[in-house]
Amino acid sequence: MNAIALGLDRARYETKIYFRQGDTVFFTFLFPIVMLSIFSVAFSAAGNFGTNPDGSGGITAAAFYVPGMIAAGILLSGVQNLAVDIAVERGDGTLKRLAGTPLPVLSYFIGKFGQVLITSLAQIALLLLIARFAFGVQLPTDAGRWGTFVWVYLLGITTSAVLGIALSRIPRSGKSATAVIIPIVLVLQFISGVYLQFSQLPVWLQNVASVFPLKWMAQGMRYVFLPDSFQQVEQGNEWNLGWVAIVLAVWLVGGLIAARFTFRWIRKDS
Q1: d(CA 103, CA 110)
Q2: N or C: which end of the chain has fewer CB atoms below 10 A?
Q3: From its phi and psi, is residue 236 left (phi > 0), alpha (psi between -120 and 50) or beta?
Q4: Is residue 47 left, alpha or beta, with left meaning phi > 0 and alpha meaning psi from -120 to 50?
Q5: Per the domain annotation, does 238 fall within a domain?
């Protein structure tokens, strides 16, 4: 219980530090919101997405991009944020200093995950508010859809967080962390249906993207926020929520194993 209390206290500290770093706030917290605004304005003159042959129906560009931006925000909050943050802390000696304190490893990770959870929820809330009131996006009214949103979000943010911890070992120094991690995250966004309509990608690229979790997070969010008619442009013409859960769960387990063997806390008794 003491370790949990310390972890919650550290989560508050980590969140304060997060919002004091301007570059981190822009590239992880505000980035999906900025991209939603850009795409909504840029494609507003092109007409609705998914219109009928007679030109009726469809949804606005803003409504179309909401699920992808939420999924991207989850990836940024978990993978990019933690991978860069922990790599920097390893490089500047923060981890070494913390290892010399009584702070348990569990408390450290509760603090990190708490910060990710708080910031990502705030990010999604702000994104939905802007989508609704700035761009007139109609949000779901069905409780079942919001139930799906909850489990896709929780599974997605947990998976992203553990993968971020595992990937923090890749950069050789804290200075190179941003240059190493951001390209990985950016490529995944382009091939996973965040910025481009997934069905318009070559089949081989769709298959490659299907290996990674972001494609499935975006697909789960599309089920929540897009009309049922958009199911026809998904792979297999289905939302495949079962596969969303399976693939994310597999990546979660794999990320936990990888993080266990790649993260090093200096103190041996931890």
Answers
A1: 11
A2: N
A3: left
A4: left
A5: yes
